[in-house]
Design a protein that fits this description.
The protein is mainly alpha-helical. It is 62% helix and 0% strand.
Length: 80
């Protein structure tokens, strides 16, 4: 079992996790009416001139991720 800051045990940083969740919730509440337009703008960027560089940046980030960007499949799902 890894220990982090005083009082934090196991995997993960609970304080950082709570902060992240709180900030994400606040962002959604603040921008709720703008989110559909943000999605459309992102889609347009992917389909436009920026698309190639955006996909390259995504691939680079996925390569650094622990899972390599691949979805994990449980043993139960494999049996079905």
């Amino acid at each position: 079992m890894a220990t982090g800051q005083k009082g934090e045990f196991g995997e993960g940083n609970y304080k950082a996790s709570r902060k992240f969740l709180s900030e994400q919730t606040a962002f959604v509440k603040k921008n709720k009416s703008k989110i559909p337009a943000m999605g459309k703008a992102a889609k347009a960027a992917l389909e436009g001139k920026e698309g190639k560089s955006l996909r390259a940046a995504e691939a680079k980030a996925k390569a650094k991720a622990r899972t390599g960007g691949a979805k994990k499949t449980s043993a139960k799902a494999k049996k079905k």
